[in-house]
Amino acid sequence: MGKYDDIIDFPVPTSKNHPRMPVIQRAAQFSSFAALRGYDDAVAETGRLTDERLELEEDDLARLDEKLFVITDNIRLQPYIEIVYFCPDKRKSGGSYQNYSGNVKQIDEYSRKFLFADGTTINIDDIIDIHISKIYE
């Protein structure tokens, strides 16, 4: 004879004042919950890796200046260039290196930025490499 055989067939008691809770709500009370809201996001953010900004050598800076001169000299032709630039991280120190390509529409020498035909702007001081793909005559 089992431990609960004497009561196993009794009807389940129900309240006359409160309706039965739907099964979905009963299940929800046993689901997991995060005691610290945002904790998982904070851990993920801490674990996200960033790169340190590279300092270019004098030779690299001289090559970049030559390419900037060629682009400036041909700006009316909107040269198509491919660049690698440093994008600072908004939340932590460091950042990442990004590739971008497009037609240069204008160079703002005062703020030292490239303005591309699609509206993108990139700070010249963040660029570490430029490849001039096409200059149309």
From the N-terminal CA to the C-terminal CA, the straight-line distance is 98 Å
Q: What overall geometry do the principal axes of the alpha carbons give?
A: rod-shaped
Major sheet strand order = 4-3-2-1-5
Category from helices, strands and their pairing: alpha+beta
Beta fraction: 25-35%
Number of helices: 3
CATH class of the domain at 58-134: Mainly Beta
Would you write up a description of this structure?
There is one protein chain. The protein has 137 residues and is of the alpha+beta class. It has a domain at 58-134: SH3 type barrels (Roll), CATH 2.30.30. It is 23% helix and 28% strand. The chain is built from 3 helices and 5 strands; from the N terminus they run αααβββββ. The protein has helices spanning 23-28, 39-47, 58-73; strands at 80-88, 95-108, 113-116, 121-123, 127-134. The chain has a 5-stranded antiparallel β-sheet, with helices on one face. The mean pLDDT is 86.
Short account of what is shown:
This protein has helices at 23-28, 39-47, 58-73; strands spanning 80-88, 95-108, 113-116, 121-123, 127-134.
Sum up the structure in keywords:
single chain, 137 residues, 3 helices, rod-shaped, alpha+beta, SH3 type barrels
Write the layout of secondary structure elements.
Blueprint: H1 23-28, H2 39-47, H3 58-73, E1 80-88, E2 95-108, E3 113-116, E4 121-123, E5 127-134
Antiparallel strand pairs: 1-2, 1-5, 2-3, 3-4
